[in-house]
Each structure stands twice: as structure tokens, then as C-alpha cells.
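User: Predict the structure for this protein chain, please.
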Amino acid sequence: QVQLVESGGGLVQAGGSLRLSCAASGRILSGYAMGWFRQAPGKEREFVGSFDWSGSDTYYADSVKGRFTISGDYAKNTVYLQMNSLKPEDTAAYYCAAELGAGGYDTWGQGTQVTVSS
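Assistant: Here is the predicted structure, written as C-alpha cells:
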């Protein structure tokens, strides 16, 4: 059974940076599409970005493009979300997800809270 565990969330001032980690146990992540999503209170879950281990297919939502970067570390079986120039509207619970099957993202972490103060 695969488990994804996010970490790295916290409270940061606007303009600051955070790096979220998504560590996996139970299966090697390389070869599987990974995604980051976020959900603010009272709002729908929102796509943040997706990551392909080949490095050629990484996509970002327009709202984070140019500020957020997704990367992966094979040795640590971990995917990262580097968030720079944070804005109060980035405040949300952030989740990583893996597409282990053929039907979209089917494995999710528990989430980590990011709060950006103005």
C-alpha cells in the first residue's frame, strides 16, 4: 500500500517562500504522474501543478505559474513544491497526489496547511 505524506507547510508573510515535500512509502514514485492540489476553506479543490519524472511534462495553474516549481528526488522518493512570492490568496491546505493506475489521481496525502499573512 502506498502512502503519501506531505510536510513543510506553515505560516509565512506575503512575499515569502515555502517548500512542501511529498514523501512516498510502499512504492517507488518515479514513472508515475504526480500532482499538487490545494483547497481553501469554502472553496473547491484546485489544481496547482503536475509533474512528470522525465521532466518534460510539468504543468502549472496560471495562478501559480512563474512562482511555484515542482521537482522530484529519485533517491528520496519525494516530490517537492517550491513556492515563492507567496500571496495571501495562496492560503490553503495543499495535497499531493499520485496517478498509480489508469484512472487519474488515485492516491492522496493527508495535506499540509499553508497560511500566508498580508
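The first strand starts at residue 3 and ends at 7.
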